Amino acid sequence: MQLTGIHHVSALTASAKKNYTFYTEVLGMRLVKKSVNQDSPNMYHLFYADEIGSPGTDLTFFEMIGVGHTYEGNNSISLTSLRVQNDEALSYWVERFNQYEVKHQGIEKQFGRSVLFFQDPEGQRLMLVSDQENKGVASGIPWEKSPVPQRYGITGLGPVKLTVPEKEMSAKVLTTIMGFRKVGSYSAYQEGQPEVEVYQTGEGGTGAEVHLEIRVDLAKEKPGRGSVHHVAFRVSDKKELEEWHHRLKQERIPNSGVVDRYYFQSLYFREPNGILYELATDGPGFTTDESSEHLGESLALPPFLEKQRSEIESNLTPLITK
């Protein structure tokens, strides 16, 4: 069994409409699925990805109207990164962020790569990472109809950073249970803090990394708008996911069991510092109920919610006002 990379990252937003505007019009990502939270169908679940919604390119948001501000801290997924093709693309994004008044820190170096830290309007902690030197997991293909030129477009998910107060148990789950390997470290941005450790799975590279930051000086994060709910890792198919389920049971790690999410099969568990992990299959994918040409154009519901469509639609605010 081998996790092959990051599958998706899911975060919180207080306004699906404003979220949609930023991620499609400013970041130029494609809305590949407009659906609802399957466990709470009165709220949107939006999926932004590459041209066809490839596994590993998918940043998703649950809308929680009225959710408060995030108080950043420990026991959190504290950074989500998005891949671009090369260093030239980052220069384009600096100009674009300046044009749209997006908060950013300018181009920096991290673990031998060029990166660009920025935030969305709700304070979501994000980073663009250049794939110029990447030799690992292949990226996706930016949406051809994006307002961002395709050669500069976002190609998928990059490393996620975990901020935790205690290293050993988190590192043990990553390596001993999940099969990640430590490949290096880099200096922390906070003076006096331990180096951030880098772990890779599968082919490695930007699409298959977890960065582990140890911060004993922080209180536990209070999540809200602009916080990350969970990170999912790629599993080839349901058979292998069931093997992962068996392994977690053997290790006596509490978990959800296999859950059918219609577009993929999932398995959820928390690591010792409270980070929520999901293992998700690559298929069947987002073209299960929509053609690739029309992804994200209509409200998509899994079959078990279809009978509630009228009620669900009446509770959702349209993303686009005609």
UniProtKB/TrEMBL annotation:
| Entry superkingdom | Bacteria
Q: Which PROSITE patterns match?
A: VOC
Example of a GO MF term = dioxygenase activity
Keyword Oxidoreductase on entry:
yes
Looking up CDD domains in the UniProt record yields: PcpA_C_like
Q: Which Gene3D superfamilies match?
A: 2,3-Dihydroxybiphenyl 1,2-Dioxygenase, domain 1
Sorted keywords for this record are: Dioxygenase, Oxidoreductase
Domain VOC, which positions? 5-131, 156-282
UniProt protein name: Ring-cleaving dioxygenase
Per the UniProt record, the source organism is Natronobacillus azotifigens
